[in-house]
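Fold it.
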Amino acid sequence: MKPLKLAILDAATLGSDIDLSIFSDFGTATVYWTTAPSEIVLRLSGVDVCIINKVKLTKEVLSQAPDLKLICVTATGYDNVDITYCQTNGIAVCNVAGYSANSVSQLTLAMVLSASVHLPTYRQAVADGTYTRGGVQNILTPVYHELAGKTWGIIGYGGIGQKVGAAAKALGCHVIVHKRTPVVGEECVSLEELLSRADIITVHLPLTDATRHLIGEKELARMKDGAFLVNVARGAVLDEEAVASAVENGKLGFFGCDVYSTEPMPETHPLYRIRQRENVCLTPHIAWGAYESRERCMKEIAENIRSYQANGKRNRIV
């Protein structure tokens, strides 16, 4: 089988602890720690297979990469690739589905559980000596409430949403779901109903034209005062300015987010101004990144390439 020329354009997003030598089995694999937009075209010169995570492959870039045959996205979402151009010009695109469900659901739960018991506040009370100086055996303010009996709304019910739903039920929550197609055995409701009923809302949707700014000012107004909102999907699924305002005016009891419309978020980003609030937990796009998840992802990408070489269509988008 003819050796391939591969380029990994943003290895920094995969972590320095992951072994990428697996891709040398296919031919020559050049690893770039990061790639600026101005460097993409040159680095794709003569390349058969491009492996990316966050690098954007636009029509303008792809039109200058005549040798490119396969794009492997080390993620489930592929909104950073011009799929229409690839389809029209015979460039295959593969993603990786399901590899990060354990990792993403774990962070989702960690955010909700930590917020529900004010964990950072109570930990700080011991760490800074407040508890010791207080002379009382316990501290019970701020008050916290059990999750059991609360309504947990899940927007998007694929592999991640289902894992979150199972955990929410185990905690005693009532789960309601908003999904494009109904799910047997679950209480599926409209987005409007979910927003108005749920005490906790977690978002697990891909970014598409239909889901961009799915939750904005109008949708936030429908939510219960003091509701929790957690986004581990894509930043632009939320109207981030509207969310920041909802935190500032006290509408949201807690906001957790791991994804942003611009990454890393600049200082001008609306969520940057609320980053230090006690009822906000912003993390640097780590949800997918448990070691086991990243290792699984690389193995899946390798299998996608093998399938392509054998004229298969494993995890093919186009």
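The chain is about 30% helix and 15% strand.
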